[in-house]
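Hi again,

Forgot to attach this to my earlier email, sorry! This is the prediction with flavin-adenine dinucleotide bound. I've pasted everything inline since the attachment limit keeps bouncing my files.
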Amino acid sequence: MTEIEPIALRELTTLRTGAAPHRMLDATTTPELISALREVWQEGGEWFVLGGGSNLFVGDEPFDGTVIRILTTGIEELPSPHEGRIRLRVQAGHSWDDLVAYAVERGYAGIEAMSGIPGTVGAAPVQNVGAYGQEIQETLVEVELIDEHADDAVVVPAAELGLGFRTSVLKHHYGEVQERRAVILSVTLDLAVTGDGGRVVRGDQLRRALGLEDYEPVPLSWVRARILETRAMKGMLLDEADPDTRSAGSFFQNAIVSEAVARTLPAECPRWKVEPDLDAMTVIPLDDYYGLSPRAERPASMVKVSAAWLIENSGIRKGFKLPRSRAGISTKHALAVTNRGGATAAEVSELARFVQSRVHAEYGLLLQPEPVLVGVEL
Ligand SMILES: Cc1cc2nc3c(=O)[nH]c(=O)nc-3n(C[C@H](O)[C@H](O)[C@H](O)COP(=O)(O)OP(=O)(O)OC[C@H]3O[C@@H](n4cnc5c(N)ncnc54)[C@H](O)[C@@H]3O)c2cc1C
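Structure tokens for the complex follow:
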């Protein structure tokens, strides 16, 4: 672990806001990371870990605590208990896209549709990253993590991480307390060994994104190249030269509403049914059991509605900017709030609040931010 001269967070985050924090530590190995965390926990005070900074919106006031940069790298191949599959154990600071490239080059399938997502492997389960219908939860076996104030790291199966749409128990959602405060040290994925020969692509969303009309087999490397091209066209692939990529990706989450609320929205607003989580088992204490099982309660169905559609149809076009502001909506994607050069967190917040208020006034829904907010309020 090395204590370094704190670097302004606007240089380490893709939305490019935030001053230098009070203190900054670099950890390049897992033992260093653990000892940095232990030291910070012992001292008390605020802290957070930083990966690629691509899902963070940091305020203008210096963070009064310690930022630990996770710079650990490495991929280890392990046997899978399943025939025709392989396991990859990857260190938390490894670049996510380098991992996808590694898997695709070797003909390991399962994460190729997530090519080009910025950031680190350790942060990927935090919001259950996904793109074009593929999510990390489909291939994630377990993570090694250390809980705040715990002595040792533990291995936690994916099923215990509460993975859902852009969420997990580890994510610090805006306005809510994090359910489990822990740092991921490594991630284990289970991938299919398919080689780079042709393979039929499953999933309508992915096939549509790839422009595949029927079920012709295509190589993994072709899928990756096509996804990278598509992302670049939408400003969703980091590119120094493209100001539309100075963002935190999608700034707003698609809204999840009841069927009754969804019916109040115009029919053209794209929507997807969200399958409710059914309780697998109801435990009835023996003393309360009279020979009749209660009827299982079916949770209400929910509907996911397109935040991009709501934004554009509340009058905010791609490229929209408030007068004299250096923050703007991406010219390619209505969901991305971008930094057009030197925008402060205050300017970004002003634009985000304006979008929220327009959508609320038009459709009665309050859009929630997707990135983790540090020292900023919307
Ligand atoms: C252009 C662009 C496109 C994007 N496209 C997508 C997309 O298609 N799909 C998608 O899901 N996301 C997308 N994102 C969002 C982002 O890339 C992902 O959420 C990514 O996983 C964040 O990784 P990071 O290392 O940059 O995390 P950071 O921004 O550094 O951190 C995000 C949060 O995770 C915490 N964290 C980081 N590392 C760890 C760790 N090891 N253990 C515990 N907590 C940790 C941080 O403290 C912080 O709270 C996009 C972002 C951009 C800028």
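The pocket of flavin-adenine dinucleotide is lined by residues 14, 48-56, 70, 92, 117-120, 122-124, 126-127, 129-131, 166, 170, 172, 183-184, 236, 238, 245, 247-249, 372 (CB under 6 Å). The two ends are 35 Å apart (CA to CA).

That should be everything now.

G.
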